Amino acid sequence: MEKYIQTMAGHWLQLLISALIVLNTQVHCHGKAMVDFTFLQNAEAKGAVCLDGSPAGYRYSKGSGDGANNWLVLLPGGGWCDTTAECLNRVKTSPGTSSTKNITASSFGGILSPNQTVNPDFYNWNRVSIRYCDGSSFIGDVEEVDPETNLHYRGSRIFSAVIDELLAKGLNNAQNAILAGDSAGALGAILHCDRFRALVPNTKRVKCISDSGFFIRAKDLPNASGREQYFARTIALHGVAKFLPTSCTSRMDPGLCFFPEYLVGNVQTPLFLLNSAFDKYQISVTLKPYPADKPGWQNCTSHTETCTPAQLQIIKEFRNTFLETLKEIGDRPPTGLFISSCYIHDHLFFDSRWNSDGSPRLDNKTIAQAIGDWYFERSVVKLIDTQPNCPVDCHVL
């Protein structure tokens, strides 16, 4: 069992690194304007540091025109590390999710794009992407630092310190504000959503977006105990439990309170859930019927046309369980939905997925159009693709 758990954790990190390579490749394409990295002021004194102890920070593009007083803060994803060994390996092999050393300027795409055609509702807002380098969805906080490893578990301090700095830059006077997150960052956005709203009490419209962050427990599907144990170890290592809502921890083990199905029903701030019912990350990594079918499962989830009938049945069961779990959360907070059948994970960063001729569409709306309509209350947006019985190749990068 111990070997199984260690290997499973390694696969989470391996897929994460691959995803980040793709993301970085996308972000630097097409000659987009570069956005400098801002190191958090007095980060070390505040304890707002990455896993390796380097100062936390963010990328910020100032708003203009009618967007000058509107703010969009994004929490990127990048998985988690659940053991000291995994966190050390993360520092060694994935500095993009553990450090700010040698960081360079980058560019914004998707929901952060400055291109009005790509991003008509938010292109001229104040747009911020906080560096994800803590491995705990911006939630953990452990005061002690082991001198042998020099690992710092300070995700919650990073979030708080960056938001404080943004408040001083004008977020405190925002007319409209969004806290969005992707993957592990989406879980952070759910957990911080009401807290974020409380920090901007004079803002008339505050909402949150979770992109590919609806990780389901799926207790009747393969590897459910592995998923639960992984989250429980992450919570313990990073000191997350004290930041989890008592509405969840008073009813169940804190290890289950990283699963959004037990969280979103108690979020008071309007929340948009953007996901695929065939989420590629969850299916290929967390659902793996490991170790019995490891080679076949890897090939199947990389090339679904090669899946056996038994493998396809597991994937179909995941999708059915995902949709049933979604139903159970009801409509509190007022929830926007865009649930596609595309075999992808992550939507907000990519122009091609966010808003292009080839973007996923439901009710003839791209993701950008759906979220814009929901945020500005132009229409009710509850779009769920229930037709396909198998993952759909939506032909988007």
How would you concisely characterize the structure shown here?
The protein contains 12 helices and 11 strands. It has 397 residues and is α/β, with parallel strands linked by helices.
Key phrases:
12 helices; secreted; EC 3.1.1.-; cell wall; AB_hydrolase_fold; Rossmann fold; Pectin acetylesterase; about 400 residues; alpha/beta; 9-stranded mixed beta sheet
Write the layout of secondary structure elements.
Layout: H1 2-27, E1 34-35, E2 37-39, H2 43-46, E3 57-61, E4 70-75, H3 84-93, E5 106-107, E6 126-130, H4 155-169, E7 176-182, H5 184-199, E8 205-211, H6 224-238, H7 246-249, E9 271-276, H8 280-286, H9 294-302, H10 309-328, E10 335-340, H11 351-354, H12 367-375, E11 382-384
Structure description:
The protein is an alpha/beta fold and 397 residues long. Helix content is 35%, strand content 13%. It contains twelve helices and eleven strands. The protein has helices at 2-27, 43-46, 84-93, 155-169, 184-199, 224-238, 246-249, 280-286, 294-302, 309-328, 351-354, 367-375, and strands at 34-35, 37-39, 57-61, 70-75, 106-107, 126-130, 176-182, 205-211, 271-276, 335-340, 382-384. A nine-stranded mixed sheet has the order 2-3-6-4-7-8-9-10-11, sandwiched between helices. A two-stranded antiparallel sheet has the order 1-5. Strand 7 (176-182), helix 5 (184-199) and strand 8 (205-211) form a beta-alpha-beta unit. The longest helix has 26 residues, at 2-27. The chain is globular and about 55 Å long.
